[in-house]
Backbone:
C-alpha cells in the first residue's frame, strides 16, 4: 500500500508547488479582454494557393483564425497594398529574380514576385475570412520606394502606419498576431509591437511561413529574444 504522507514528505513542498503551478499554467487558457487585440496579418489571395506569392498551406490558417477571432472584441486586419512597380518586386530591378536580395537605402530587401497590387483581386482579403467585428483594416507597403512587412512601421524604420497610436487610444496593451507569413509580416509586426511597448503573442498554428534562406528559424529566434510569446490557438479560451 502507498503511504501518501511519506511520498509527499519525500518530494518536499517546493517540488509540489512547482508541479502544481506547471499544471495550472498548462490548463489555464488565456482570456482575451478589452485590453487585447487580435492582429490578422495579410490573409490575402496573393498569399493563398493559386496566388503569386502563395505561402505553403496558407489556407490552413483561415479556419483557425475565424475560430479564434470569436474570442476577441478588438480585431485589426492588415492588407499588403503595393503600387505597380513597387521597389520590393524583382520585376522592378533589371536582371533580378524573386527571392534574391538587394541593398536599399533602408537596408537589405528580399525581392518578391509581383504581389498584392492595389485594387487587384490578389490584394483582396480572403473571402473565407469570417470576422465581422473587425474594426480596422490597415493597408501597408503603399509607398513605392519603401516596403512594409510590419503593421506598425515601414521598412525605413521610422514611418509609422498609425497602428500603435490607434491601439493605445483604444487602451489595448497586448496583441495576438496571426496570419501570413510567419517569418516576414507576422514576425516584423510582433517585433515592432514589442518595440512600441505592447505585450505580444504569436499564435503559431494560426500562421504559416515562407522560409527563404533560413528566414523562419531566424524569425522565431529574433522573436524569442524580444520577448514575443509563442503560443497555440488552443491556449486561448474559446468564445
Ligand atoms: C509578405 C513578403 C512580401 C508577408 C508581404 O505578408 O509576409 N511577405 N510581402
Ligand atoms: Zn509585400
Residues:
Amino acid at each position: 500500500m502507498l503511504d501518501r504522507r511519506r511520498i509527499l514528505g519525500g518530494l518536499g513542498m517546493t517540488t509540489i508547488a512547482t508541479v502544481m503551478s506547471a499544471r495550472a499554467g498548462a490548463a489555464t487558457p488565456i482570456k482575451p479582454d478589452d485590453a487585447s487585440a487580435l492582429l490578422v496579418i495579410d490573409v490575402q489571395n496573393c498569399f493563398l494557393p493559386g496566388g503569386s506569392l502563395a505561402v505553403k498551406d496558407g489556407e490552413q490558417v483561415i479556419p483557425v483564425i475565424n475560430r479564434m477571432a470569436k474570442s476577441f472584441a478588438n480585431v485589426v486586419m492588415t492588407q499588403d497594398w503595393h503600387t505597380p512597380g513597387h521597389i520590393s518586386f524583382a520585376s522592378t530591378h533589371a536582371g533580378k529574380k524573386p527571392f534574391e536580395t538587394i541593398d536599399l537605402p533602408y537596408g537589405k530587401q528580399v525581392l518578391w514576385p509581383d504581389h498584392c497590387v492595389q485594387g487587384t483581386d490578389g490584394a483582396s482579403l480572403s473571402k473565407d475570412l469570417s470576422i465581422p467585428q473587425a474594426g480596422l483594416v490597415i493597408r501597408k507597403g503603399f509607398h513605392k520606394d519603401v516596403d512594409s512587412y510590419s503593421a506598425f512601421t515601414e521598412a525605413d524604420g521610422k514611418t509609422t502606419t498609425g497602428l500603435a497610436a490607434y491601439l493605445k487610444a483604444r487602451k489595448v496593451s497586448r496583441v495576438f498576431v496571426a496570419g501570413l507569413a510567419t517569418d516576414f509580416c507576422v514576425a516584423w509586426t510582433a517585433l515592432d509591437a514589442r518595440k512600441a511597448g505592447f505585450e505580444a503573442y504569436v499564435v503559431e498554428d494560426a500562421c504559416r511561413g515562407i522560409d527563404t534562406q533560413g528566414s523562419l528559424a531566424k524569425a522565431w529566434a529574433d522573436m524569442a529574444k524580444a520577448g514575443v510569446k509563442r503560443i497555440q490557438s488552443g491556449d486561448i479560451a474559446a468564445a
